[in-house]
Sequence to fold (106 residues):
Amino acid sequence: MSSPTRHRVIALYKQLSYLGREYPAGADYFHKKLKSAFLKNKDLTDPAEIQKRIDLGDYICKEIEAMYHINKYRAMKKRYYEDTQAENIQKKIESTNWADGGQAKH
Fold:
């Protein structure tokens, strides 16, 4: 593995490890899965395959970040709206047809 690729893999591991601290199933669970995934792929030598795995890791980082943003949004919504208000807002969001420029379904 070339030096830039090695540094990118290490940075990806650190980034995923940092993101895993707040994982819903627990940091220990996430770290065990992360470590096993990286150890499983430690013997890869094909640069294209390594890049493919790095891209997959970047995708997972984005998915975890999106999950955290959704959880944060839901927690804020619970704090600021009563249950009935939140349900009404959720129904309005679900009934909106985004393909028609945000016009509600009729």
About this structure: The chain has a mean pLDDT of 83. The helical segments are 3-19, 27-40, 47-80, 83-95.
